[in-house]
Amino acid sequence: MKKMFFTAAILLLSLEGFSQGSTDYGSGLKFNLNDDGSKFMRVIAWNQIWFRSAEMNPGTMIGGEPTSTATDIGNRRLRFLAYAQVSKRYMILTHFGINNQTFINGGAAGTSGTGGYGAGKKPGLFFHDAWNEYAVVLPEKDKKFSFTLGAGLHYYMGLSRLTMASTLNFLTIDAPIFNWPLIENSDQFARQVGLFAKGKYGKLEYRLSYNKPYATNLTPTNTMNASNAVAVDNSGNTKWSKAGYFEYQFLDQEANVLPFKVGSYLGTKKVFNIGAGFYTAPDATKTSVNSTINKHDIKLFSADIFLDMPIGKKENKMAVTGYSVLYDYDFGPNYLRNVGIMNIGSVDPNFTGSRAIAGAGNAQPTMGSGNIWYTQAGVLLPCKEAKPKIRIQPFGAVTYKNFDALEQSSTQFDVGSNFFLDGHHAKITAQYSTRPVYTSLTNRSGSLGDFIVQLQIYL
Question: Where on the tree of life does the source sit, at the highest rank (predicted)?
Fold first, then answer.
Protein backbone atom coordinates (compact mmCIF):
# COMPACT_ATOMS: atom_id res chain seq x y z
CA MET A 1 0.00 0.00 0.00
CA LYS A 2 2.84 2.36 0.84
CA LYS A 3 4.45 1.73 -2.52
CA MET A 4 1.14 2.27 -4.34
CA PHE A 5 0.54 5.53 -2.47
CA PHE A 6 3.98 6.83 -3.39
CA THR A 7 3.48 5.98 -7.07
CA ALA A 8 0.06 7.63 -7.16
CA ALA A 9 1.42 10.74 -5.43
CA ILE A 10 4.27 11.04 -7.94
CA LEU A 11 1.84 10.81 -10.85
CA LEU A 12 -0.64 13.28 -9.40
CA LEU A 13 2.04 15.82 -8.51
CA SER A 14 3.61 15.47 -11.95
CA LEU A 15 0.29 16.06 -13.68
CA GLU A 16 -0.38 19.15 -11.56
CA GLY A 17 2.63 20.77 -13.16
CA PHE A 18 1.73 19.78 -16.73
CA SER A 19 -2.07 19.89 -17.11
CA GLN A 20 -3.32 23.31 -16.04
CA GLY A 21 -6.80 24.02 -17.34
CA SER A 22 -7.32 20.88 -19.45
CA THR A 23 -9.85 18.18 -18.60
CA ASP A 24 -8.84 15.95 -21.53
CA TYR A 25 -5.13 15.54 -20.89
CA GLY A 26 -5.44 12.68 -18.41
CA SER A 27 -2.15 10.97 -17.63
CA GLY A 28 -0.51 12.32 -20.77
CA LEU A 29 2.11 10.29 -22.60
CA LYS A 30 2.98 7.81 -19.86
CA PHE A 31 4.34 4.30 -20.27
CA ASN A 32 4.26 1.78 -17.43
CA LEU A 33 7.41 -0.32 -17.07
CA ASN A 34 5.83 -2.91 -14.77
CA ASP A 35 2.32 -4.24 -14.07
CA ASP A 36 1.42 -2.01 -11.11
CA GLY A 37 2.77 1.21 -12.67
CA SER A 38 5.32 1.83 -9.91
CA LYS A 39 7.98 2.00 -12.61
CA PHE A 40 7.14 4.28 -15.53
CA MET A 41 8.39 6.73 -18.11
CA ARG A 42 6.69 10.05 -18.85
CA VAL A 43 7.21 11.93 -22.13
CA ILE A 44 6.40 15.59 -22.81
CA ALA A 45 6.76 17.34 -26.17
CA TRP A 46 6.01 20.97 -27.05
CA ASN A 47 6.30 23.53 -29.84
CA GLN A 48 6.05 27.31 -29.60
CA ILE A 49 5.81 29.15 -32.92
CA TRP A 50 6.13 32.96 -33.05
CA PHE A 51 4.82 35.41 -35.63
CA ARG A 52 6.30 38.88 -35.06
CA SER A 53 6.06 42.44 -36.26
CA ALA A 54 8.70 44.63 -34.66
CA GLU A 55 10.31 48.05 -34.78
CA MET A 56 14.05 47.67 -35.21
CA ASN A 57 16.70 49.65 -33.35
CA PRO A 58 18.25 52.52 -35.33
CA GLY A 59 21.17 51.31 -37.41
CA THR A 60 19.69 47.89 -38.27
CA MET A 61 19.85 45.91 -41.46
CA ILE A 62 18.47 42.47 -42.30
CA GLY A 63 19.95 40.34 -45.06
CA GLY A 64 22.17 43.25 -46.12
CA GLU A 65 19.26 45.69 -46.47
CA PRO A 66 18.70 48.65 -44.09
CA THR A 67 15.33 48.58 -42.32
CA SER A 68 13.42 50.10 -39.42
CA THR A 69 10.70 47.41 -39.19
CA ALA A 70 10.48 43.67 -39.75
CA THR A 71 8.03 40.79 -39.76
CA ASP A 72 8.93 37.12 -39.47
CA ILE A 73 7.88 33.71 -38.20
CA GLY A 74 10.16 31.41 -36.23
CA ASN A 75 10.54 28.51 -33.83
CA ARG A 76 10.88 29.88 -30.32
CA ARG A 77 11.05 26.44 -28.68
CA LEU A 78 10.82 22.89 -30.06
CA ARG A 79 11.44 20.54 -27.12
CA PHE A 80 11.22 16.95 -25.90
CA LEU A 81 11.45 15.87 -22.24
CA ALA A 82 11.39 12.38 -20.76
CA TYR A 83 11.81 11.17 -17.20
CA ALA A 84 11.63 7.72 -15.71
CA GLN A 85 10.82 6.64 -12.16
CA VAL A 86 12.74 3.37 -12.07
CA SER A 87 12.18 2.83 -8.34
CA LYS A 88 10.37 4.77 -5.63
CA ARG A 89 13.65 6.54 -4.83
CA TYR A 90 15.47 6.87 -8.15
CA MET A 91 14.62 9.06 -11.14
CA ILE A 92 16.43 9.98 -14.35
CA LEU A 93 15.52 12.93 -16.62
CA THR A 94 16.59 14.10 -20.06
CA HIS A 95 15.39 17.18 -21.93
CA PHE A 96 16.56 18.23 -25.39
CA GLY A 97 15.48 20.36 -28.33
CA ILE A 98 16.12 23.60 -30.21
CA ASN A 99 15.40 27.27 -29.62
CA ASN A 100 15.23 30.52 -31.58
CA GLN A 101 15.30 29.40 -35.20
CA THR A 102 14.42 32.16 -37.68
CA PHE A 103 14.58 32.56 -41.45
CA ILE A 104 18.07 34.05 -41.19
CA ASN A 105 19.75 32.71 -38.05
CA GLY A 106 19.51 30.06 -35.34
CA GLY A 107 20.68 27.26 -37.61
CA ALA A 108 23.48 24.76 -37.04
CA ALA A 109 27.01 25.98 -36.44
CA GLY A 110 28.62 27.11 -39.68
CA THR A 111 25.38 27.56 -41.66
CA SER A 112 25.28 30.65 -43.82
CA GLY A 113 24.34 31.98 -47.23
CA THR A 114 22.24 29.90 -49.63
CA GLY A 115 21.72 26.17 -50.05
CA GLY A 116 21.16 23.04 -48.05
CA TYR A 117 23.02 24.49 -45.08
CA GLY A 118 22.00 28.07 -45.68
CA ALA A 119 21.43 30.71 -43.00
CA GLY A 120 19.10 29.62 -40.22
CA LYS A 121 18.70 26.01 -41.38
CA LYS A 122 19.03 22.65 -39.62
CA PRO A 123 19.70 23.75 -36.03
CA GLY A 124 21.52 21.27 -33.83
CA LEU A 125 19.68 19.49 -31.04
CA PHE A 126 21.27 19.83 -27.61
CA PHE A 127 20.53 18.77 -24.06
CA HIS A 128 18.86 21.32 -21.83
CA ASP A 129 18.71 18.98 -18.83
CA ALA A 130 20.25 15.61 -18.02
CA TRP A 131 20.35 14.55 -14.39
CA ASN A 132 19.90 11.66 -11.96
CA GLU A 133 18.36 11.99 -8.50
CA TYR A 134 17.86 9.85 -5.41
CA ALA A 135 15.19 10.41 -2.74
CA VAL A 136 17.03 10.08 0.57
CA VAL A 137 13.87 10.88 2.57
CA LEU A 138 10.74 10.05 0.62
CA PRO A 139 8.00 12.71 0.26
CA GLU A 140 5.31 10.58 1.89
CA LYS A 141 2.05 11.81 3.36
CA ASP A 142 2.88 11.20 7.02
CA LYS A 143 6.21 13.03 6.91
CA LYS A 144 6.76 16.80 7.08
CA PHE A 145 10.30 16.51 5.77
CA SER A 146 11.54 15.26 2.39
CA PHE A 147 15.06 15.31 0.97
CA THR A 148 16.38 14.41 -2.49
CA LEU A 149 19.92 14.60 -3.87
CA GLY A 150 20.77 14.85 -7.57
CA ALA A 151 23.56 15.57 -10.01
CA GLY A 152 24.00 16.50 -13.66
CA LEU A 153 23.04 19.28 -16.04
CA HIS A 154 20.14 20.74 -14.09
CA TYR A 155 17.64 23.59 -13.69
CA TYR A 156 17.75 23.90 -9.88
CA MET A 157 19.46 27.28 -10.22
CA GLY A 158 17.90 29.03 -7.26
CA LEU A 159 17.51 32.83 -7.25
CA SER A 160 13.76 33.20 -7.99
CA ARG A 161 10.58 31.37 -8.93
CA LEU A 162 10.88 32.80 -12.43
CA THR A 163 14.49 31.62 -12.73
CA MET A 164 13.13 28.05 -12.57
CA ALA A 165 9.95 28.75 -14.55
CA SER A 166 8.29 26.17 -16.75
CA THR A 167 8.20 27.35 -20.36
CA LEU A 168 4.86 25.54 -20.86
CA ASN A 169 2.56 27.68 -18.75
CA PHE A 170 3.77 31.29 -18.69
CA LEU A 171 1.19 33.95 -17.89
CA THR A 172 2.77 36.32 -20.41
CA ILE A 173 4.03 35.15 -23.79
CA ASP A 174 7.50 34.42 -22.43
CA ALA A 175 9.90 35.13 -19.59
CA PRO A 176 11.50 38.60 -19.44
CA ILE A 177 14.96 36.94 -19.84
CA PHE A 178 16.63 38.87 -16.98
CA ASN A 179 15.18 36.13 -14.75
CA TRP A 180 17.95 33.96 -16.30
CA PRO A 181 20.83 36.38 -15.59
CA LEU A 182 23.62 34.05 -16.79
CA ILE A 183 21.83 32.88 -19.94
CA GLU A 184 24.27 31.40 -22.46
CA ASN A 185 27.32 32.95 -20.74
CA SER A 186 28.28 30.87 -17.70
CA ASP A 187 25.34 28.49 -18.14
CA GLN A 188 23.92 26.28 -20.89
CA PHE A 189 20.50 27.74 -21.63
CA ALA A 190 19.83 28.56 -17.95
CA ARG A 191 21.43 25.35 -16.65
CA GLN A 192 24.73 24.45 -15.02
CA VAL A 193 26.38 21.14 -14.19
CA GLY A 194 26.56 20.32 -10.53
CA LEU A 195 24.92 18.86 -7.43
CA PHE A 196 21.51 19.80 -6.09
CA ALA A 197 19.32 19.13 -3.08
CA LYS A 198 15.57 19.69 -2.92
CA GLY A 199 12.73 18.94 -0.59
CA LYS A 200 10.13 20.27 1.81
CA TYR A 201 9.69 20.84 5.50
CA GLY A 202 5.99 21.35 6.10
CA LYS A 203 4.97 24.30 3.94
CA LEU A 204 8.56 25.39 3.31
CA GLU A 205 10.12 24.24 0.03
CA TYR A 206 13.90 24.45 -0.43
CA ARG A 207 16.27 24.07 -3.37
CA LEU A 208 20.06 24.29 -3.13
CA SER A 209 22.81 23.65 -5.67
CA TYR A 210 26.59 23.64 -5.97
CA ASN A 211 27.76 23.97 -9.57
CA LYS A 212 30.73 24.38 -11.88
CA PRO A 213 29.88 27.35 -14.15
CA TYR A 214 30.86 27.22 -17.79
CA ALA A 215 34.06 29.12 -18.52
CA THR A 216 33.88 32.68 -19.89
CA ASN A 217 36.75 34.66 -21.42
CA LEU A 218 35.62 38.10 -22.56
CA THR A 219 38.46 40.63 -22.54
CA PRO A 220 37.84 43.71 -20.37
CA THR A 221 38.49 47.14 -21.89
CA ASN A 222 41.38 48.88 -20.16
CA THR A 223 40.62 52.24 -18.54
CA MET A 224 42.78 54.75 -16.70
CA ASN A 225 40.02 55.68 -14.26
CA ALA A 226 38.60 53.02 -11.92
CA SER A 227 35.16 54.68 -11.95
CA ASN A 228 34.91 53.99 -15.69
CA ALA A 229 35.86 50.29 -15.45
CA VAL A 230 33.34 47.89 -16.97
CA ALA A 231 33.15 44.30 -15.74
CA VAL A 232 32.85 41.53 -18.34
CA ASP A 233 32.34 37.77 -18.04
CA ASN A 234 35.79 36.26 -17.63
CA SER A 235 36.03 33.48 -15.05
CA GLY A 236 39.50 32.13 -15.84
CA ASN A 237 39.82 28.85 -13.95
CA THR A 238 36.14 28.83 -12.98
CA LYS A 239 35.30 28.54 -9.29
CA TRP A 240 32.22 26.74 -7.99
CA SER A 241 28.94 28.64 -7.74
CA LYS A 242 26.30 28.35 -5.04
CA ALA A 243 22.56 28.87 -5.50
CA GLY A 244 19.39 28.47 -3.50
CA TYR A 245 15.71 29.28 -3.33
CA PHE A 246 13.35 29.04 -0.35
CA GLU A 247 9.60 29.39 -0.70
CA TYR A 248 6.84 29.29 1.92
CA GLN A 249 3.59 27.96 0.46
CA PHE A 250 0.72 29.29 2.60
CA LEU A 251 -2.20 27.61 0.81
CA ASP A 252 -2.17 24.64 -1.60
CA GLN A 253 1.16 22.84 -1.81
CA GLU A 254 2.91 22.78 -5.18
CA ALA A 255 4.66 19.81 -6.71
CA ASN A 256 8.46 19.65 -6.60
CA VAL A 257 8.92 16.37 -8.46
CA LEU A 258 10.42 18.47 -11.27
CA PRO A 259 12.04 21.90 -10.93
CA PHE A 260 9.71 23.74 -13.32
CA LYS A 261 7.58 26.39 -11.57
CA VAL A 262 4.06 26.99 -12.93
CA GLY A 263 3.24 30.45 -14.26
CA SER A 264 -0.57 30.23 -14.19
CA TYR A 265 -2.77 27.43 -12.82
CA LEU A 266 -5.97 28.77 -14.44
CA GLY A 267 -7.95 28.37 -11.25
CA THR A 268 -7.10 24.71 -10.64
CA LYS A 269 -5.26 25.51 -7.36
CA LYS A 270 -5.24 28.08 -4.57
CA VAL A 271 -1.63 29.21 -4.27
CA PHE A 272 -0.03 32.01 -2.27
CA ASN A 273 3.75 31.84 -1.88
CA ILE A 274 6.54 34.10 -0.69
CA GLY A 275 10.09 33.24 -1.71
CA ALA A 276 13.70 34.43 -1.68
CA GLY A 277 16.84 33.19 -3.38
CA PHE A 278 20.47 33.77 -4.29
CA TYR A 279 23.25 32.90 -6.72
CA THR A 280 26.94 33.58 -6.06
CA ALA A 281 30.06 32.83 -8.11
CA PRO A 282 33.56 33.91 -6.96
CA ASP A 283 35.91 35.74 -9.35
CA ALA A 284 33.47 35.42 -12.25
CA THR A 285 34.04 38.78 -13.97
CA LYS A 286 37.03 41.03 -14.61
CA THR A 287 37.87 44.69 -15.13
CA SER A 288 41.11 46.30 -16.29
CA VAL A 289 42.38 49.54 -14.71
CA ASN A 290 45.80 50.89 -15.77
CA SER A 291 46.43 47.44 -17.31
CA THR A 292 45.87 45.78 -13.93
CA ILE A 293 43.25 43.01 -14.00
CA ASN A 294 40.77 42.96 -11.12
CA LYS A 295 38.44 40.06 -10.38
CA HIS A 296 34.86 40.41 -9.14
CA ASP A 297 32.31 38.06 -7.65
CA ILE A 298 28.84 37.64 -9.11
CA LYS A 299 26.32 38.16 -6.29
CA LEU A 300 22.64 37.94 -7.20
CA PHE A 301 19.66 38.06 -4.84
CA SER A 302 15.88 38.17 -5.17
CA ALA A 303 12.60 38.21 -3.26
CA ASP A 304 9.26 37.36 -4.84
CA ILE A 305 5.58 36.72 -4.24
CA PHE A 306 3.15 34.56 -6.24
CA LEU A 307 -0.66 34.38 -6.12
CA ASP A 308 -2.94 32.17 -8.19
CA MET A 309 -6.50 31.27 -7.21
CA PRO A 310 -10.14 31.11 -8.30
CA ILE A 311 -12.23 34.27 -7.74
CA GLY A 312 -15.92 35.13 -7.89
CA LYS A 313 -18.76 32.65 -8.19
CA LYS A 314 -17.67 29.05 -8.69
CA GLU A 315 -19.85 28.61 -11.78
CA ASN A 316 -18.03 31.48 -13.54
CA LYS A 317 -14.66 29.64 -13.32
CA MET A 318 -12.71 32.89 -13.01
CA ALA A 319 -9.17 33.06 -11.66
CA VAL A 320 -6.52 35.65 -10.91
CA THR A 321 -2.74 35.27 -11.28
CA GLY A 322 -0.11 37.67 -9.99
CA TYR A 323 3.65 37.62 -9.56
CA SER A 324 6.15 40.25 -8.43
CA VAL A 325 9.91 39.96 -8.00
CA LEU A 326 12.73 42.29 -7.00
CA TYR A 327 16.25 41.45 -8.21
CA ASP A 328 19.44 42.90 -6.74
CA TYR A 329 22.24 42.12 -9.20
CA ASP A 330 25.98 42.66 -8.75
CA PHE A 331 28.17 41.37 -11.59
CA GLY A 332 30.97 43.84 -10.89
CA PRO A 333 31.41 47.55 -11.77
CA ASN A 334 29.16 48.92 -14.54
CA TYR A 335 28.36 45.46 -15.91
CA LEU A 336 25.72 45.65 -18.65
CA ARG A 337 24.49 43.02 -21.07
CA ASN A 338 22.20 43.52 -24.07
CA VAL A 339 19.93 40.75 -25.32
CA GLY A 340 17.41 40.42 -28.16
CA ILE A 341 15.21 37.31 -28.36
CA MET A 342 15.47 35.69 -31.81
CA ASN A 343 17.28 38.81 -33.01
CA ILE A 344 17.25 38.91 -36.82
CA GLY A 345 19.01 42.28 -37.16
CA SER A 346 22.63 43.07 -37.86
CA VAL A 347 24.57 46.34 -37.77
CA ASP A 348 24.23 48.64 -40.78
CA PRO A 349 27.78 49.95 -41.38
CA ASN A 350 26.50 52.86 -43.48
CA PHE A 351 24.03 54.22 -40.92
CA THR A 352 24.80 57.85 -40.03
CA GLY A 353 22.26 58.56 -37.28
CA SER A 354 22.37 57.88 -33.55
CA ARG A 355 22.72 54.15 -33.05
CA ALA A 356 21.23 52.18 -30.18
CA ILE A 357 24.04 51.20 -27.83
CA ALA A 358 22.32 47.83 -27.36
CA GLY A 359 23.06 47.01 -30.99
CA ALA A 360 20.88 46.17 -33.96
CA GLY A 361 17.48 44.49 -34.21
CA ASN A 362 15.43 44.11 -31.05
CA ALA A 363 18.31 44.10 -28.54
CA GLN A 364 17.94 46.03 -25.30
CA PRO A 365 19.78 46.46 -21.98
CA THR A 366 18.59 43.32 -20.21
CA MET A 367 20.94 42.39 -17.35
CA GLY A 368 23.34 44.50 -15.37
CA SER A 369 24.64 45.48 -11.97
CA GLY A 370 21.76 47.28 -10.29
CA ASN A 371 18.11 46.54 -9.56
CA ILE A 372 15.16 45.17 -11.53
CA TRP A 373 11.56 45.11 -10.36
CA TYR A 374 9.12 43.04 -12.41
CA THR A 375 5.39 42.52 -11.87
CA GLN A 376 2.78 40.67 -13.92
CA ALA A 377 -0.94 40.05 -13.42
CA GLY A 378 -3.74 38.39 -15.34
CA VAL A 379 -7.42 37.45 -15.01
CA LEU A 380 -9.12 34.38 -16.46
CA LEU A 381 -12.44 35.75 -17.69
CA PRO A 382 -15.76 34.12 -16.71
CA CYS A 383 -17.24 31.23 -18.66
CA LYS A 384 -20.31 29.23 -17.64
CA GLU A 385 -20.10 26.60 -20.37
CA ALA A 386 -19.15 23.09 -19.27
CA LYS A 387 -16.71 22.72 -22.15
CA PRO A 388 -16.02 26.13 -23.71
CA LYS A 389 -14.41 26.40 -27.12
CA ILE A 390 -12.11 29.12 -25.84
CA ARG A 391 -11.09 30.74 -22.54
CA ILE A 392 -9.62 34.24 -22.47
CA GLN A 393 -7.00 35.53 -20.02
CA PRO A 394 -5.89 39.16 -20.49
CA PHE A 395 -2.64 40.10 -18.76
CA GLY A 396 -0.18 42.90 -18.26
CA ALA A 397 3.36 43.29 -16.96
CA VAL A 398 5.63 46.18 -15.99
CA THR A 399 9.44 46.19 -15.67
CA TYR A 400 11.56 48.82 -13.93
CA LYS A 401 15.33 48.67 -14.50
CA ASN A 402 17.93 50.78 -12.73
CA PHE A 403 21.42 49.77 -13.89
CA ASP A 404 24.63 51.32 -12.55
CA ALA A 405 26.05 51.68 -16.07
CA LEU A 406 23.12 53.79 -17.34
CA GLU A 407 22.45 57.29 -16.07
CA GLN A 408 18.70 56.97 -16.63
CA SER A 409 16.45 54.19 -15.39
CA SER A 410 13.74 52.70 -17.63
CA THR A 411 10.18 51.42 -17.38
CA GLN A 412 8.67 49.12 -19.99
CA PHE A 413 5.34 47.36 -20.45
CA ASP A 414 3.79 44.19 -21.83
CA VAL A 415 0.08 43.81 -22.52
CA GLY A 416 -1.74 40.92 -24.16
CA SER A 417 -4.02 37.94 -23.78
CA ASN A 418 -4.00 34.16 -23.77
CA PHE A 419 -6.69 32.39 -25.78
CA PHE A 420 -6.96 28.86 -24.39
CA LEU A 421 -8.29 26.19 -26.73
CA ASP A 422 -7.44 23.41 -24.26
CA GLY A 423 -5.76 24.97 -21.27
CA HIS A 424 -2.03 25.53 -21.73
CA HIS A 425 -1.92 22.44 -23.97
CA ALA A 426 -3.30 24.37 -26.93
CA LYS A 427 -3.29 28.14 -26.73
CA ILE A 428 -2.75 31.26 -28.79
CA THR A 429 -1.10 34.25 -27.12
CA ALA A 430 -0.91 37.80 -28.45
CA GLN A 431 1.31 40.40 -26.78
CA TYR A 432 2.57 43.92 -27.43
CA SER A 433 5.78 44.92 -25.65
CA THR A 434 7.81 48.09 -25.35
CA ARG A 435 11.55 48.31 -24.87
CA PRO A 436 13.80 51.28 -24.04
CA VAL A 437 16.29 52.63 -26.58
CA TYR A 438 19.52 54.18 -25.32
CA THR A 439 21.73 56.08 -27.76
CA SER A 440 24.40 56.61 -25.09
CA LEU A 441 25.01 55.67 -21.48
CA THR A 442 23.54 59.03 -20.48
CA ASN A 443 20.63 59.30 -22.93
CA ARG A 444 17.45 57.24 -23.23
CA SER A 445 15.93 58.43 -26.50
CA GLY A 446 12.55 56.69 -26.20
CA SER A 447 10.88 53.33 -26.73
CA LEU A 448 10.16 50.91 -29.56
CA GLY A 449 7.60 48.13 -29.77
CA ASP A 450 7.15 44.50 -30.72
CA PHE A 451 3.92 42.62 -31.47
CA ILE A 452 4.06 38.83 -31.15
CA VAL A 453 1.49 36.09 -31.72
CA GLN A 454 2.40 32.64 -30.41
CA LEU A 455 0.84 29.25 -31.13
CA GLN A 456 1.66 26.70 -28.44
CA ILE A 457 0.93 22.99 -28.42
CA TYR A 458 2.21 20.54 -25.83
CA LEU A 459 1.47 16.94 -25.00
Answer: Bacteria
